[in-house]
Write a structure and sequence with these properties.
Length: about 270
């Protein structure tokens, strides 16, 4: 597998960042948990890990733009060379010692995803993708599942906790999916959900209220694994559009149509 300098840099940065996360995971008495908002946790591990990842990237690419969850100034994605970082995706899991949390690093240029890396710390699973070259898990190529029928599909989602505006619609969707599929999982890390779709562990996934760092890497990994990723209108605003639906082609279609049937037209588009 021939990897770009950006992929190599992302791997090196993630392995360095992971040491900090593992240290705090094993020394939980040292972990201080703060709140960014109601239900929105942050720990010093998030902040230190992001700083470590940024310094690794800057040592190789000093002039690139970096959008990191813990250090962002609210900048939008432009056409410039940009790294989009979530130092710990699954902070609530991490704070509780629930073992599903990842580092997510996406690299964009011309506003498009070029490289993506997601490292799930507990399983030591390194997922990565390079535009046009494919997607891998620990060095082996991955593909989305071949499940065609909703009745045989396992779906993933995230339960909204900041913006509860679509809660009633969500309940209707859950009811439909519980009746028509093998069920819906909520592991607690959007990055992990996305690589589960890319590697065929889940057949489809949907969520709203997401930020660019939740999806920047995982979206590319799914595309490179043969899956489809869109916003809720079927468009390609899934990085900054806050609403994502993805899956293998058949199950993406089923989940997208289900969202459109269940959720009123206006609410399909993020308006914030
Ligand atoms: C969160 C996780 C979660 C999703 C939230 C995200 P964080 O990211 O990805 O699964 O439901 O919307 O904010 O806060 O743990 O980095
Ligand atoms: Ca996140
Ligand atoms: Ca985070």
């Amino acid at each position: 597998m021939n990897t770009s300098k950006e992929v190599e840099t992302a791997v090196a940065a993630a392995l360095e960042g992971a040491k900090i996360i593992q240290y705090y995971h094993q020394n939980r008495e040292k972990l201080q948990v703060d709140y960014k908002g109601r239900h929105d946790l942050v720990t010093q591990a998030d902040v230190e890990t992001e700083q470590r990842i940024i310094s690794e990237i800057r040592s190789v690419f000093p002039n690139d733009i970096i959008l990191g969850e813990e250090t962002t100034d609210g900048s939008r994605l432009t056409n410039e060379r940009t790294w989009i970082i979530d130092p710990i995706d699954g902070t609530t899991n991490f704070a509780h010692g629930f073992p599903v949390f990842c580092i997510s690093i996406g690299f964009y240029t011309g506003g498009k995803a070029e490289a993506g890396l997601i490292y799930e710390i507990n399983r030591e699973e390194m997922f990565m993708a390079q535009k046009g070259a494919g997607a891998w898990l620990n060095g082996s190529k991955i593909r989305v599942s071949e499940i065609q029928e909703p009745a045989s599909a396992l779906l993933g989602t995230g339960f909204p906790y900041r913006d509860l505006g679509l809660l009633d619609d969500y309940m209707l969707l859950f009811r439909k999916f519980m009746e028509e599929t093998h069920g819906v999982r909520r592991p607690g890390s959007a990055a992990y959900d996305l690589v589960c779709v890319a590697s065929g562990r889940l057949d489809g996934f949907f969520e709203y209220g997401l930020s660019p760092w939740d999806v920047a890497a995982g979206g590319l990994i799914i595309q490179e694994a043969g899956g489809i990723v869109t916003d809720w209108t079927g468009g390609d605003s899934w990085v900054e559009g806050k609403r994502i639906v993805c899956g293998n082609p058949q199950i993406w279609k089923y989940v997208s149509e289900s969202i459109k049937e269940t959720i009123a037209g206006n609410s399909l588009v993020h308006k914030g």
